[in-house]
Fold these 4 entries.
Entry 1:
Amino acid sequence: MDQRPESLLITGVRVFDGLGDAAEPGAVLVEGDRIAATGPEARDRAPERAEVLDGGGRVLLPGLTDAHVHLVALGTEPAGLATASAGLPHLRALEAARRMLLRGFTAVRDMGGDVAAVKQVIDEGLFPGPRLYPSQAALSQTSGHGDFGAVHEPPVALGGAPSRAEEIGFMRVVDGPDRVLAGAREQLKKGASQLKVMAGGGVASRYDPLGTLQFTPEELRAAVRAAEDFGTYVAAHVYGSAGVRRALEAGVRCIEHGQLADERTIGMLAEHDAWLSTQPFDVDDHHYPTPELAAKNTMVCDGVERTLHRAREHGVRLAFGTDLLAPAEAHRQGAMLARLSRWLSPVEALRIATSGNAALFRMAGERDPYQQVIDGHPTAPLGVIRPGALADLLVVEGDPTRDLGVLADPAANLALVVKGGRIWKNSLG
């Protein structure tokens, strides 16, 4: 379903606004792409022409958000990315975006991949999908987490040709501050709302043990300088303590992963007012072709509980992301959010996946594609149910403020999906 009524009044719902402690009886009036009123005022202000939907006592909440997705990877298996014809991975990314929206995720940060055209098609209303905050190609050093060239091929810095991952805009391998600066500016030119750098070893890459330090302080500062000059920030892929500390000292504002960082390093995140965008991984979320890669995956998963516990103790600003990497994994998105209830209350997890992630997305500042900032204040909040906010909302069966598990089965439990005032799914009758 795809329609945008001039006015939409949703009644008979209990509203979780993305900020509070519970779902309270209420109503919501949507006009255009914004929430116009809530509570009794929604009924009072609704025009006669308004389309009225009765929620039947279900819960209404802001659209869910995911701070770490890879739409290009979710559309095509890794082997296919290396052999597919030009354009095919991006067309498949569109279908991955559609499914993501129908799982209830109405805004996401894409943390590596050329999704500029995908975003444009979605934003123009030509195809369903979430709001996209793109990083474009992630920046990696030679022999870093984003270097997918063959070991026998010379690196670009020594005269070699770009790998297939670089050709399709998934990664950009750059060495030295000048090349990092050029690579960062290239992604900003292509529409990045924030930059992504690989500052430590990775699970899926073959040349870099997890504990490796990637990019020198000078290289990291070059990326940070480019981002700050454009009014935005840098996020860094890194697991271990030394890499996290180097990134923070260089001015990186968001750490992606961090599951191997020690307590002192987690405390530094709070001291630097930086975000931790981590993922509640289980070993079975990803499948790797070699024992070496599988062992790295186990190490990361073993650090999830410890990292979340330390982050909460130190008051670190937490974001929720999934970092799923293949079509067969994409359906786990809601289940990974539900998994947070092992360590957080359902309401705490929902706040993170709505208003919390939205605050991180809005750090893009001048590069935020869905925001106009006047006198330093956003004109249209995201991730909340309140007047003036962007009309991204869900109506669900059950009560996710008490049981996050209802979000693990979106096909059965999502009764209404609205993004920007447009109805993309409606089974309310």
Entry 2:
Amino acid sequence: MKKLILLSTAIFLFGCTKSESDLVFDKLPEQRVEERNAELRAALVEAENGWNAVLTTGNDLEFSFYFDFTKDENVKMVSDINEKTIITPASSTWRIKYVMNTSLIFDTYNYITQLQDPTPSVLGGVAGNGFFSDIEFEYLRSTPDSVILKGKKYHGSLILTKAKAEEKKLYLEGKFYDMALKTDAAIAEFDNIILEKSASERLQIDVNSNKTISISSVEADGSILTADTYYHYTLTGIAFLNPLIYKDLKLVALNLKANGNLVALDSQGKEHVLKNSASPILPLYKLMGVKYNRLFSPFKTIFPGTTTKGAEIMNFYHQNLNNAYTGYTFGNGSLSLSWNLVNQRVSVIGWHNQNGNTGWNTTAVFGYTVDDAGVYTFTLLTPAAGGYVQKLISEPGKPTIQNFLLTNKIKLDYFIDGNNVYGMMESINDPTIKITFQLN
């Protein structure tokens, strides 16, 4: 009986035909592959006015693109990567291939592949990785007006939405660049961009040159709320794939109106009027270690607002990088004060470089207290030791940054020069000592 049972089971298994088992999936695998490939191909080429697109990279940057795909597997594109790519259409080839899933592949050098270029001199990205961008994208889904893809290596997104005829015309006639310039000019008109959410909630918006935008506020208890995201240019201003969020407010764009006014657009489609403030609404000491991480002084640079005594301190470091204090001639160098809010530390870092080498850091670490008026008192925790520029940071009896921090109570403030906002350190003991730095 046991043999009969086994035999009947075998007959049942071998009696199933291939066509019967395939009915579980409705179609043969190769048919499903062909249909999915055809679905993406049709979506791309049948958009008669092309596509608005946003590409995100592995390091979260956002770039705008316009694509016009043709049936002969060519694509015309412009992008907001730089002044050339935004105004000069470039052509490339593309193809659809099934590798675990239907994929869009850009297979000749173009503006997308520039973002992956491993040579920093091309766009300024990271050696070996560029901007961590993809050139092969997995097809996720589509709607009548959009196509959603995901990068196969760095997993950035590529989101396409159908363009209108007038948008296509603007892209291909260089008007995208004109709009970007107008948007930059409108933003530059503000000393500080303020959004009044309510009578008691004033929010500060900062648009930064590294394609990030931030929102900040001082809460009733004195704490700081801050958030940031990346932005890309559009034909109406700038937009953010990931919203800029403050409590229940989600901003998705800053749009330039026909009258030249700049407004903030929220996720509900409401426009918020933006106002100008001569000075930032948030005290600088509240933002150090929250929004800004350091005060930075580049090589032999004295910024506006620095007084004579302040310049003496900075020049003791910068001008002595090539004399007996170091024993070497350094072709480059910088001085920075880096904030650690959690541990209430400030690291003074002297960076120096010789003959194109990577360079060295010499660091002194200070503890600090800060009172309700924003006045700092510094104490030395770890002296600068063993570095080439140790004396330039801490030489006794000289106008060094260490001696300045240890012998003065210090307050921080902004210094505004045209469109530039600097961070200023000012001595409470001697108000004639003021030093301005870049805010990073």
Entry 3:
Amino acid sequence: MKKLALIPLVAACLSMPLAAQTADPVAEVEAQGDRTARVSQQIWDWAELGYLENRSSGLLQDELQSEGFQVEAGIADIPTAFLAEWGEGGPIIAILAEYDALPGISQTAAPTREQSEHGAGHACGHNLFAGGSLTAAIAVKRWLEKTGTPGRIRLYGTPAEEGGSGKVYMTRAGLFDDVDIALHWHAADENSAAARTSLANRSAKFRFRGISAHAAGAPERGRSALDGVEAMNMMVNMMREHTSMDTRIHYVITEGGSAPNVIPDFAEVFYYVRHSDAAEVQALWTRLEAAAKGAAMGTGTEVEWEVIHGNNPLLVNETLARAMDRKLRSLGGIEYTSEERAWAEEISKSFGENAEPLEEAGKVQPYAKTLGYGSTDVGDVSWATPTVGVRTATWVPGTSAHSWQAVAASGHSIGHKGAQLAAKALTLMAAELYTNEELRKAARAEFDAARGEDYEYVSLLGDRDPPLDYRE
């Protein structure tokens, strides 16, 4: 730790009761550095996809049970979801953990493009999310135990963030209703505790069915399901011209036939629709469905669709965000060893004009209220209980999420360092929340005002069951 960081760190501790100052929350995290690296690396090696993270979820549960946590597995009808709790009385502080990988992108831990044979990879750093959150939960438990501070610490194992909306089903099941504050973090190429909101989104697989025939010998007998998909895509692409600035629409054709001389009787396209306002996502979705119906009518095919996931936008709580920003500033950024810097320099070459100075990893970005154009199922949690997050430089500055460079750093010591920094920030934040009733009250007041008196939770998923096979 930098010497200059000690002054704000001591100042933050002065707000705690004397008993709570007898143990150092940061030291509890530092004592677990090997655990953070070991667990993060093992989950990186497995790279399990959403709702299929059996080994990753099991590893986290085993680690928590060995520390005395009571673990309930299979919550919200999701086999790889779990809730682990330790303590009694006092506030309930939750820490979220993710552990699903992304399909179609893999990479070794090398600083040059070196695709692995796995076929999936932690391009969003969820292996680090899991390892860092695990360490934070255990550090908080040990701190509560040593100080005798009343309170309960929970770790929520939340699968399938990438397109599966695991936390939405958990929120819908009421699993966060008794939580006082929820904490989360994410891998990034910078250190920031900005009040960063996100886009709401909904996805679905649109499945067209037609009539198969010989494309040359009997074309008049066929009705191409692929024509239905392409007609829908054409109309949606024209629709983009008439949407508001925050709109994001993207798709992939997941099935379109096998041979050009066989008119395909089945085709499928997978759509995402995003906007900063959940109501606008619903309005855009109505237009998307109309395009699908029109495409089917015009091509003589039939269409049906299955909603796969849907997330509400993050509800920012600036009371908590500013407190988290103070914690992160007390800790500082990431310092590379000479070996890590050489590795990072090699990665940085692949960014070309988008390369950032490596020194950015050692800085904490200015506090601001910003809109992030990604989406996350943490958004639904943030409408159930006051929620705050932090981002740390687990990746080389300039790295984009969902890239091979992110996969590489997520399996490297640079990533492990970032996870440790996040664990320290979460643990410091939790320690203050347990002991600072005024902070908890202020956060709740802001939360209640933002939701409004008549607020009722609405899931963008409707009442569907978790799509446990969406990655199979």
Entry 4:
Amino acid sequence: MPASKNPAVQIFTPDYWEEACKHLSKKDRVMKRLIPKFGDACLESRGDAFTTLARSIVGQQISVKAAQTVWDKFALLPRKLTPANVLKLKVDDMRGAGLSARKVEYLVDLAIHFDSGAVHVDAWKDMADELIIDELVAIRGIGRWTAEMFLIFHLMRPNVLPVDDLGLLNGISVNYFSGDPVSRSDARDVAVAWAPYCSVATWYIWRSLDPVPVAY
């Protein structure tokens, strides 16, 4: 999992990517066609866990552009973006950055979980995906989909299949079912050939709909 040379923003990539691409190309005809289209591009992880989850909360139910504007204002409030510093912020200042009352509550709950040790960040590397999801969904404002995105984009877990993700379902519909509607059960059936690299296959399915990689 090499890091970038820029000390300001560390970017990590999965060490399993090449092996995953070989496996998927061998097991799945659609993957064999898709993977070569995107060259060396692959999943990237950046930032720390708290910041990543805070950004996901800020961005809920608003456009990407609006989310970035609010985030830029919010991130300037504490001297350094840490759970303890977020807990010191005044509600009025957070609202002034453009956050709704509910998102302020969610960010405070996130900070409490991290500051109190209710989430076991240091142990996540050795924990099963579902156990991490259980910890994350106990935080207000974080549902299973957000937890799965965190597993894929931050922890870079190789075998996550987010069957509630509309992009994944749409991509499977286009690539495997000639555009016919796809159920979660259909997605699971298709993904049997993807294991143990469902995250990688999902990433390529997303790319087939939008060639610009998502940074979470």
